Amino acid sequence: MIAQVHAGEMVVPSGPAAAFRSLAENGAGAGNTIHVHHAVNFNVSAMDSQSVRQFFKDHGRTIMRTLNESVRTGSHIGLSKLGAT
Fold this sequence. Notes:
The chain has 85 residues and is mainly alpha-helical. Helices cover 49% and strands 0% of the residues.
């Protein structure tokens, strides 16, 4: 069938759409739970462990703020490229 979809919208197959509707109607407390897991890897080259420790002490808050913002805007799954933020 032909569908008119607005910019930023998407068509979801009936199976996932039904599951989402059920979750929305029953709420997460009815045994339905959503889990989102994100893997983050850091490669830090340093001559000693003190340098690594100091790096994360100095920049840890900025790193976490950047990661949280990326997850919030969906850039980790490409949503920011779609302008869906």
